[in-house]
Amino acid sequence: MTGWLDGRRALVVGAGSGIGRAVVDAFRAEGASVAVLERDAGKSAAITEALPDVPVTVGDATTREANDEAVATAVEAFGGLDVLVNCVGVFDFYRGLGDLDADVIDDAFAEMFSTNVKCHLHAVKAALPALRESRGSIVLTESTSAYYAGRGGVLYVSSKFAVRGLVTSLAHELAPDVRVNGVAPGGTLDTDLRGIPSLGQESRRLDDTPGRAADLAARTPLGVALTGADHAWSYVFLASSRSRGITGDVVHPDGGIATGRQTERRP
Ligand SMILES: NC(=O)c1ccc[n+]([C@@H]2O[C@H](COP(=O)([O-])OP(=O)(O)OC[C@H]3O[C@@H](n4cnc5c(N)ncnc54)[C@H](O)[C@@H]3O)[C@@H](O)[C@H]2O)c1
């Protein structure tokens, strides 16, 4: 059996849990060699224990240094890099501008946009020389919140619209050498997505929301509550040569949100 990613060398940033962790498993199942960059030491140790052949860099992906180190580690281990995936993100638990004290906006904006936006810039910048050499592919993580309001607060939604802008802008800039696409998951089960410290939310997990599975399914026309493992195949496709004619585009594994129809409104 041949895999969709046979021989591909990938770096997954934010791979310790949720969608990124599922991408690691799917990529490996499809034949890729995978390295990871993850901030959380416990999650990093768990990857090393479960997958001893995966080179793990423990570091903060909002910094240039951590991304440079992770790319160097991957290139040294694999002899090059074909794919960069970034699954880092933090949430704001639906805080509207009216919910934010004026004196918290500077810190909250810096935290949200540093993690959800700048992190992608550093990762792409660090990986670019190796990706140009391999004529590789980048997959960034958007969200339903990159297209619609209401599934996050003002900072989360605007940060995800910015990631959407990065996909378009980088795809334009990096063609024909490197393809750049996005995956825009809908609300996802079994992840560790957390809030930001300036809003006092760093220990709060979105996945702990009571009734979340039923709520997610009820929101979508397909009536599905998806997990990282479901989304991972969109990343596999965009990282593979099957998508070689696609750049600046997005796959939306979200149960059909764009149809505008909600399951609870069905007759
Ligand atoms: N959970 C959802 O409902 C949902 C829906 C749509 C989009 N997303 C997006 O999917 C992506 C993955 O989210 P998830 O739900 O799997 O959450 P997650 O928290 O399980 O995964 C994010 C990973 O990134 C790591 N991380 C966070 N900040 C980091 C940093 N500065 N440096 C290095 N690693 C860091 C975390 O430790 C974690 O392992 C995010 O971009 C999120 O916005 C999530």
TrEMBL record:
The keyword Oxidoreductase appears for this protein: yes
Gene Ontology molecular function, alphabetical: 2,3-dihydroxy-2,3-dihydro-phenylpropionate dehydrogenase activity; oxidoreductase activity, acting on NAD(P)H, oxygen as acceptor
Catalytic activity, EC: 1.3.1.87
InterPro entries recorded: NAD(P)-bd_dom_sf, Sc_DH/Rdtase_CS, SDR_fam
Coiled-coil parts of chain: none
Recorded superkingdom: Bacteria
Protein name: 3-(Cis-5,6-dihydroxycyclohexa-1, 3-dien-1-yl)propanoate dehydrogenase
Species in which this protein is naturally found: Actinomadura darangshiensis
Gene that specifies this protein: hcaB
